[in-house]
Write a structure and sequence with these properties.
184 residues; mainly beta; 6-stranded antiparallel beta sheet; 5-stranded antiparallel beta sheet; 2 helices; 13 strands; 6% helix; globular
C-alpha cells in the first residue's frame, strides 16, 4: 500500500496495490495491523455504505461530537466522487481549510479522515457507491454538520452548483463560524 501524507494534519491518502492479470486484479484494501502502524492507531467499529443515484449529489459536510467523534476511512466502490475533508479543530493551524480529491473504483484510492474534520462528497457520475469504516458508531445526538457551500471554507466543488441534489438536512447546516468549538 502506498501512503500520501496530505497538507492538513492527520489526513492521509492510501492507494492499495493491485495485482492484475488477464482476469482483472486482486487488492488487499485494508489490513488492521498495517493501518495502525502506518496511518493511525485506531479501531474501526462500523462500516457504512451509501448509494447516490444522481450525478451532482452533495452529501455533507458531516461530523459527530465527542464521545462519538468519528475517524473515517473512505473509498468509492462504484462511480467517481469528489471527496472533501474540512478541518474544524479550532486550535489547529489548518482550521477552516479543506482538501478534496477524486475517489473511484478505477483509482482505488482511499482517504483517511481523522476526528476533528467534517466530511462530504459530490458525485461526479450517476450511481456512486461509497464505503467507509468509522471509529465510533452513529449517534443521532452527536450528529452535526456544516454548510457544504460556506464561503468562509470556499470548497471548489467540481459540479454545477445551481443544480446540486441535497438532503433537507444538508440544506440547512450552519456556517463554520457558527459551530461550537471542536478542540484540537
Amino acid at each position: 500500500m502506498n501512503i500520501e501524507i496530505l497538507p492538513l494534519a492527520g489526513l492521509t491518502k492510501i492507494t492499495p496495490t493491485r495485482l492484475g492479470d488477464h482476469r482483472g486484479y486482486f487488492s488487499e484494501v485494508f489490513k488492521d495491523g498495517w493501518f495502525r502502524e502506518n496511518v493511525a492507531d485506531v479501531a474501526f467499529v462500523q462500516e457504512n455504505e451509501s448509494l447516490s443515484a444522481a450525478a451532482g449529489t452533495v452529501r455533507g459536510l458531516h461530523f459527530q461530537l465527542d464521545p462519538f467523534a468519528q475517524g473515517k476511512l473512505v473509498r468509492c466502490i462504484a462511480g467517481t466522487i469528489f471527496d472533501v475533508a474540512v478541518d474544524i479543530r479550532v486550535n489547529s493551524p489548518t482550521y477552516g481549510q479543506w482538501y478534496g480529491c477524486e475517489l473511484s473504483m478505477q483509482n482505488g484510492e482511499q482517504l483517511w479522515i481523522p476526528t476533528g474534520f467534517a466530511h462530504g462528497f459530490a458525485t461526479l457520475v450517476p450511481d456512486c457507491v461509497i464505503s467507509y469504516k468509522v471509529t465510533a458508531p452513529y449517534s443521532a445526538v452527536s450528529d452535526r454538520g456544516v454548510s457544504w457551500n460556506d464561503p468562509e471554507i470556499g470548497i471548489e466543488w467540481p459540479v454545477p452548483l445551481d443544480n446540486v441534489v441535497l438532503s433537507d438536512k444538508d440544506r440547512i447546516q450552519p456556517k463554520l463560524a457558527d459551530l461550537p468549538p471542536f478542540k484540537y
